[in-house]
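Protein modeling request. Please complete all fields; requests missing the sequence field cannot be processed.
Requester role: graduate student
Desired output: 3D structure, token encoding
Chains: 1
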Amino acid sequence: MKKIVLTLLTSLFMLSGVQAATLYGVDVAESTTLAEQELVLNGVGIRKKGPFKVYLGALYVGSKAKTADVILQDEGAKRVQLNMLRNLSKNKIVGAIVDGFRDNTDDMASIQVRVDEFINYMDKVKKGDNIQFDYLPETGTNIVINGTNKGTIIGKDFFDALMKVWLGDKPADGRLKAAMLGG
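Delivered output (183 residues):
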């Protein structure tokens, strides 16, 4: 039932001209600006692990797309935003994301140094925290936690590998992937 309600709310939100919606107590904007570029909400969904709601994941892109390939091929700015719905230790959140890298990256060796850098930027999170992974073509991937830029990792290949954690062939959560792709 909750899945149906979330799907209906998300669909109504996407089709209406509404500026924002609230899902699971989290305000989700229809659009955002990143480095003076307007990004639109491609899709939003919930990450569940067993019976637990872990976070609300939103994908912002320059132009809406229904497939991961189109989003990954786009050279423009993008944002993955995670709004935490529960507390997680650094080991839990980093472990889950690193597992996603391993499951969806053919050549981990080519990004391993940057994955290690990513791990250093991450921290424990608590319910209500906001994590943004912002890709800027000229800069790289900014890791932003609760509005504080923790660091930047160079290379589109790193951001693409990070995106595949949610949009790859073996995503963290298939329902979240579908939702982030506007399904």
